[in-house]
Amino acid sequence: MKFMNKKPRKPIGKLVLASGVFDLVHYGHVHFLEEAKKAGGKHARLLVIIARDKTVEKLKSEPPILPEEQRRAIVASLKPVDEAILGREEFNMSEELREIRPDIVAVGYDQEQIEKQVLSVAKSEGLNIKLVRIGKFVASELDSSSKIRSKILGQ
């Protein structure tokens, strides 16, 4: 009798791509990532791109509280996330989409700029990418990193 120590292979599902800053992770972030993964259906894989510190500073005119590698590690540890990677120093959605080739890109309620870039790149490159917008989760007064920061600072 042969002993086979092989685990059954998991079926490969759709690849869902999400991105964000994820500074001061809160339940709104978790909700976004859970819904993003659900958008891919059964056996979906969720890849999350974490914005680099320089990108955050450029977009928000202030640096994030947590450094990029810590933000990446925190997001990678969340249950719905299969992998979290740091974005490029010079964020370029067309390069990310061409390289990763996701089936679905999930965007948050406040990611209009990324939504426009994804739609534009998908059209110009002929990529078959479904875009899914994830609505805002509102359960408490502390539903964003900026609100958490303000509360800590007593503002």
Short descriptors:
155 residues; alpha/beta; Rossmann fold; five-stranded parallel β-sheet; 6 helices; 39% helix; globular
Explained architecture:
The chain has 155 residues and is an alpha/beta fold. The protein is 39% helix and 17% strand. The N and C termini lie far apart (71 Å). Strands 3-2-1-4-5 form a five-stranded parallel sheet, sandwiched between helices. The longest helix is centred in the last third of the chain and has 14 residues, at 112-125. It contains six helices and five strands. The protein has one domain (15-152): Rossmann fold.
Q: Can you describe this structure in just a few lines?
A:
With 155 residues, the protein is α/β, with parallel strands linked by helices. Helix content is 39%, strand content 17%. The chain has 6 helices and 5 strands.
Topology of this structure?
Layout: E1 15-20, H1 27-39, E2 45-50, H2 53-60, H3 68-76, E3 83-86, H4 93-100, E4 104-108, H5 112-125, E5 130-134, H6 145-152
Helix pairs in contact: 4-5
Strand content: 15-25%
Number of E strands = 5
Count of the domains: 1
What CATH architecture do you see? Answer: 3-Layer(aba) Sandwich
Q: State the share of residues found in helices, binned by percent.
A: 25-40%
Task: Summarize the biggest pleated sheet.
Answer: 5 strands, parallel
CATH C-level class is Alpha Beta
CA-CA gap between termini:
71 Å
Q: CATH-wise, what's the superfamily?
A: HUPs
Q: How are the strands of the largest sheet arranged?
A: 3-2-1-4-5
- The ordered string of helix (H) and strand (E) elements is EHEHHEHEHEH
The radius of gyration is: 17 Å
**Unreliable runs:** none
What is the SS-derived class? alpha/beta
Look at the structure and give the mean pLDDT. 87
Coarse morphology = globular
Number of helices: 6
| CATH topology description | Rossmann fold
